[in-house]
Write a structure and sequence with these properties.
- There is one protein chain.
- The longest helix is centred in the N-terminal third of the chain and has 38 residues, at 11-48.
- The chain contains 10 helices and 6 strands, in the order ααβααβααββαβαβαα.
- The chain has helices at residues 11-48, 78-88, 102-107, 117-129, 150-153, 156-160, 219-234, 254-265, 297-300, 308-314, and strands spanning 95-96, 132-134, 164-169, 196-201, 240-245, 269-272.
- It is elongated.
- The protein is α/β, with parallel strands linked by helices.
- Helix content is 37%, strand content 9%.
- A 6-stranded parallel beta sheet has the order 1-2-3-4-5-6, covered by helices on one side.
């Protein structure tokens, strides 16, 4: 089989190949040298940045946002600001007691009164004059037996704004807490604008259902009568007493008759609350109860382990 002719490179081509190899080697060495110089500079800069000789880069502050247009609250008429306060405090209940939930429900709202003097005066007067403050705590818990009720924890300025206070009778009827006492620490002398005292009766221990459970006959009735008398002595500005009660409390029971006598003694106007449905004068007949059978205290207040029927059977 015949061999193919082999093309041999010319002498010029042979001489050019080594020069190309040298050039590529030179270019590669130059490129590696430039890379090594760049890396060296970066390492040197990073090390130098750790020293105090290298100046720090200037901190770039973010561009400030354009200020929003402020609402001209103080430019509004006072009547409109009162409407705003009414909406702002709408979530807070009408009757305030000393409970541990007050910090969650009320404390943040009262921060409005720390803005300026004008808003502080208006908001303070609106809030404390539109709420009913309970004289002695009735919520079971850490504050039930406290010797410093809610009224005593208010400042004199706040007590001067009050217009309504509430005395709730019934909790602790067998052993009233020691903190339920009228003294100078309660701060009644500062309540110069209170015109209505609300007396809410939860229980009448003279009812036969409480036989064999009373501390003594007439004990709680006498305690409540003296407590109401001392409160009225400390609140000469009170004009009317609003009586209300649970459905189990009878209008002509020993408990209510003792309270009516104190209200008459101090020549106060007697009004009726919405829950019990009483009307007319204290000596008038009370409205008929539901289904012709008066509700008992234990029917409305569940007590674990006991039923109203068991107490009625014992009575």
């Amino acid at each position: 089989m015949p061999r193919r002719p082999v093309k041999r490179a010319s002498s010029a081509q042979k001489s050019s190949q080594p020069s190309q190899t040298l050039n590529s080697a030179a270019m590669g060495s130059g490129r590696s040298a430039s890379l090594s110089v760049t890396e060296t500079e970066e390492v040197t800069a990073s090390i130098a940045s750790l020293t105090l000789d290298t100046p720090l880069r200037p901190f770039r502050k973010p561009k400030p946002k354009a200020p929003e247009k402020k609402f001209p609250l103080l430019s509004l008429p006072s009547e409109l600001r009162i409407k705003i306060y009414e909406y702002f405090f709408a979530e807070i209940t009408e009757v305030l007691d000393l409970t541990r939930e007050n910090h969650k429900r009320i404390h943040k709202k009262l921060g409005l009164m720390r803005t300026c003097r004008l808003i502080s005066n208006e908001a303070t007067h609106f809030f404390y004059s539109t709420r009913t403050f309970r004289l002695f705590p009735t919520t079971p818990g850490r504050f039930f037996k406290t010797k410093k009720p809610l009224l005593a924890r208010l400042s004199a300025r706040q007590r001067q704004c009050l217009t309504r206070v509430e005395l709730r009778l019934g909790p602790g009827w067998s052993a009233p807490p020691a903190g339920w006492v009228v003294n100078t620490g309660l701060g009644l002398k500062d309540c110069i604008h209170v015109n209505t005292l609300r007396v809410y009766v939860e229980v009448d221990p003279s009812d036969n259902i409480f036989n064999n459970f009373r501390r003594a006959d007439g004990f709680y009735e006498e305690f409540s009568r003296k407590l109401l008398e001392n409160i009225l002595k400390g609140l000469p500005s009170v004009h009317a007493i609003e009586f209300d009660a649970y459905e189990s409390v009878q209008k002509h029971g020993a408990m209510m008759r003792s309270l009516f006598s104190i209200a008459t003694k101090f020549d106060k106007v007697i009004t009726w609350g919405p829950d019990r449905g009483w009307f007319g004068a204290p000596e008038d007949e009370e409205p008929p109860s539901k289904n012709g059978v008066p509700n008992r205290y234990l029917d409305s207040i569940p007590i674990t382990g006991f039923t109203a029927q068991s107490f009625v059977a014992v009575a």
